[in-house]
Amino acid sequence: MEIEKCTTLEDAREKIDAVDEEIVKLIAKRNEYIKQIAHFKTSVEEVKAEDRISDVISRAREQAISLGLSPNLVNDLFVRMIDAMVESEIAEFNNAKSF
Q: What is the predicted pLDDT for the residue at 96?
């Protein structure tokens, strides 16, 4: 991971804003894949995929640790993101099955 050295507060804030923008884009990209996945599943229980969720969160926690980041922070972010995306996937699943 390459981090540029900032020379001013404004420079650091600009870099943070750029990272935040990329984070939001990546979350949106992830959500689009989640919607696609809904079309491969056959039940709402399959959509919920508790084992998969555990694996995703576990990998995220391990990556956080390897990057010197709080695994609890990453865990909390992923739990919230996944909960919202499961809701989105269920809606997509239900819409796909109604046609």
A: 81
